[in-house]
């Protein structure tokens, strides 16, 4: 692709539409439909990615999809992506074996404002696969734990079998400096954990709304309910950040497929401050 | 002495926070302390909903059984929450089972007693409804999300 149609800011560097080669180093299954790939980029960046950003991952001859980075941003020689196999590209991605090659562009988009959380209570609300884009932010927060007040992870998913990063969540639960609450929408009778939608955990959480910041990621309907619960708990819209999902294709703000109101999710998002997108959430045409 | 103890417990319970002292005494007249062992059922589907419970300690699972699917938990409740809203609406029968997941201490409220007091004093009745409606709305919202199965496959 010619770089002529790219915005000036993107013309200076390498062509952002040209995939680099990357190699799968490890593949593991998280749930029946979700897999995590550890990938080695052929070009190791000196700059760590920002928690919340995404890459475009492609299987040659099949296609390309946006996938959030789900690993530790401090580990620069390995990119981690957690993928739900639902379409032709994502199914082809999770079939890749260690040593096989894929195409990679990125990282793209805005991230979680971890530096804005310094000195504040941090509430992280994740629904389903939404935990994956939040995990890098959690790594970053925990790496400098002393800089923040309380940290609370409220995670909801469909059933006990759908819990992502189970061992890591249990390890975090054993720590005394992060509160981890896990809930599932429904469970068999032998489940001893919590059952109920993730938004109900908000009213049971303890935080100072004047000093708190919230990061929310999950299905859009779940995020709307979570934001309502946070508002009811006294959190201002300016203190709530959410990650939007739309049909991102070029990832550089050119094609317009991911338009969301006046913004493009690939360029201006995926992480938005709530007050800046409030009027567009829930609009059916968007 | 027993009544004073219950009054303190009820006035400190999240559900009745800020309740007028006189109303608190009315509520106490319908209340008693109860305990359940882990695995014991508070009530079963189809039984008359003659009581509801203010949880003081421990967790309770709400369960429903469906042919071919076995028993499913659809909600767990814990300290500070209430178990049971079926006593509010005819036919006053439970529509699910409630099981103690661990040792549970609760206040059992006699529903008929409370209904009669609500009928006799509509201001008191309004105060009770003002506390129950948010619980009902929260559970309605939760049910909406569960029905939508938002974590299922994207369309």
Automatic annotation (TrEMBL), chain A:
This is NAD(P)H-flavin reductase. GO terms for biological process: pyrimidine nucleotide biosynthetic process. Keywords: 2Fe-2S, Iron, Iron-sulfur, Metal-binding. Its cofactor is [2Fe-2S] cluster. SUPFAM superfamilies: Ferredoxin reductase-like, C-terminal NADP-linked domain, Riboflavin synthase domain-like. Residues 17-114 form the FAD-binding FR-type domain. One of its GO terms (molecular function) is metal ion binding. Pfam families: DHODB_Fe-S_bind, NAD_binding_1. It comes from the Bacteria. It comes from Enhydrobacter aerosaccus. Binds 1 [2Fe-2S] cluster per subunit. [2Fe-2S] cluster binds at residues 250, 255, 258, 266.
From TrEMBL, chain B:
Coiled coil: none annotated. PROSITE patterns: CNMP_BINDING_3. CDD domains: CAP_ED. SMART domains: cNMP. Pfam families: cNMP_binding. It comes from the Bacteria. InterPro entries: cNMP-bd_dom, cNMP-bd_dom_sf, RmlC-like_jellyroll. Residues 15-116 form the Cyclic nucleotide-binding domain. This is Cyclic nucleotide-binding domain-containing protein. It comes from Enhydrobacter aerosaccus.
